[in-house]
User: What shape does this take?
Amino acid sequence: MKAQGLAAVALSLTVALAAIPALGQLVQLTGGSSIDLQVRGTDNVVDFVPGTVSPLPSGDTLVATGPDADATATFAYSDTAFLITDLDYALGAANDTSSFAQLAGQMRFTPVVDVIWELDGAFSWEGDWANGMSLFARITDTTTADVITLHYYDSGGVMSTVSYTVGVGGGNVSNVVGPITGTLQAGREYLYEYGLAVDNNMFSPEVGTATGNLSLTFAIPEPGVFALVGLGLLALLKARVRK
Assistant: This one.
């Protein structure tokens, strides 16, 4: 009876552990993933700065510089997270044309196992006379077109201070706040789209700044952790049976 019980425990643990990925890899990119940083200065044609596009999975610091608009953003990708950090826009008066900065991109990925996802971030503006500011983040199941989560915060009008927090919102034009965590299924492809943009008024008397960050992280659901603990208990049980 002890041997049969031990075999049953071993079988259940083997099934549970089969879903745990090797080397901590939780998601895989499936192509078409990139990140783009761009600014616009005094003239939409002459002073337009083409987007700085970087394909994933590379990590880098993007820089875009125009006559009245500068922007930088650092990003990093791993098998367990996609992080945008140190986002910094500086937008000045632009001679009868508003200045603009935007970081945008998309990531197509497939979970190796069922994973818990979590979205986090913030975006804020300090300065005179911003025309508008927006934060957009969406995860979609590409097979069914089902939207897993959608965050769209958008503000308009002449603004001196604006602040958004993912999961809380703060837009006066659009304030769509979706879930900030959930579970994605193994083997299905998902599309993560995002954008952080701000537009400064053409008559702004000073340079305004926008700063932000945005992260999408993945973790193994708790049952996977319990299976690892169970494996240790199984080894201890085997040692006791041998005695």
Summary: DSSP finds two helices and 13 strands in the chain. Helices lie at 2-17, 222-242. The mean pLDDT is 80. The longest helix spans residues 222-242.
